[in-house]
Specification:
The protein has about 290 residues and is of the alpha+beta class. The protein is built from 9 helices and 13 strands. It has helices spanning about 15-25, 85-90, 115-120, 145, 160-175, 175-180, 190-205, 245-250, 260-290, and strands at about 5-10, 35-40, 40-45, 55-60, 70-75, 95, 100-105, 125, 135, 155, 160, 185-190, 225. The strands form 5 sheets. It has a 4-stranded antiparallel β-sheet, with no helix packed on it. The relative contact order is 0.19.
């Protein structure tokens, strides 16, 4: 059963509790950031980094009457069905679980940054500074929470049962950002049920929502679904997608947006140089073994 989160931006108050919860749950170090403006929005921090897996962008728009309207949008790995990142990764870093979570093996990362270039949501970040080797980092959908085992919870010495136990299990397995949301803007659960809930909300309040669930089909269907009162392109979300194969081909031809970190080239060069030394060492050993 595929899991997902439904984000109702009409309920988001921009408090950024999700950012704090994500930092704490993933034990991410603090970093110096500053307020910045990006096309269509404002935010702090500026975007994803090895120490920032999620952030909120602030969008000052106009409502139907021409007045100001604020919309807040949570960003994180979308956990796509179409794995753009995996298509271009030569190190086989990315994998998908049965529940649709896109996981990764950071120890395999070579720092080439191809995933950064091809991801339509610009999610992956690679740490070049604090480690001796490049290290991929991104939202893992709190998989460690989803897979955590619950052993006989008790209250006042009595085991939880029935609905109380089910509520407790949902609370433990819910991603940290969704659990910390004070306004109920983020809901976690089976993807099919969340799609039904999103459709119910749109039908019940058609004047409140754009008649579209973002993530339903985008990138093949994502693990994060969105409702909004304004068109999603006004929030800076992509609305046109090439296939992963087409995107990978464009990257190889150099026609994607250049986002590669300068040290990615150094990392790739050092990897090639190291491979050359290994080849020379093996060749020397073979020659010594055959010489008289």
């Amino acid at each position: 059963m595929r899991c997902a989160c439904l984000v109702d931006t009409t309920r988001c108050i921009g408090c950024r509790s999700c950012q704090v919860a994500c930092k704490q749950s993933n034990r991410l170090d603090a970093e110096k950031t500053r307020f910045s403006a990006s096309p269509g929005g404002y935010q702090n921090p500026r975007g994803f980094s090895p120490r920032t897996f999620t952030y909120i962008s602030f969008h000052e728009l106009e409502d139907a009457a021409g007045g100001p309207a604020w919309v807040f949008l949570k960003h994180q790995c979308m956990h796509c069905t179409d794995l753009y990142c995996a298509t271009v990764c030569g190190a086989d870093v990315f994998h998908k679980t049965e529940t649709g979570v896109v996981t990764y093996d950071a120890d395999k990362c070579m720092g080439c940054a191809a995933c950064m270039e091809v991801c339509p949501f610009h999610v992956p970040a690679i740490d070049y500074w604090d480690l001796p080797t490049p290290y991929l980092r991104k939202c893992g959908f709190c998989l460690q929470r989803q897979q955590s085992k619950i052993e006989a919870p008790q209250i006042d010495g009595k085991p939880l049962e029935g609905e109380a136990l089910r509520r407790y299990e949902r609370s433990v397995h819910t991603p940290a950002c969704a659990k910390a949301c004070p306004s109920g803007a983020i809901q976690f659960g089976p993807r099919d049920r969340l799609i039904e809930e999103a459709r119910r909300r749109i039908a019940a309040a058609p004047d409140r929502y754009v008649n579209h669930i973002y993530g339903l089909t985008e990138a093949g269907g994502t693990g994060w679904l969105y409702l909004a009162s304004v068109p999603f392109e006004k929030l800076g979300l992509p609305t046109k997608f090439a296939s992963p194969e087409e995107a990978g081909s464009m990257k190889r031809m150099g026609s994607t947006r250049p986002r590669r970190h300068p040290l990615a080239w150094l990392s790739a060069g050092l990897s090639t140089l190291a491979a050359g030394f290994v080849w020379l060492a093996k060749r020397r050993d073979r020659v010594r073994g055959t010489d008289p």
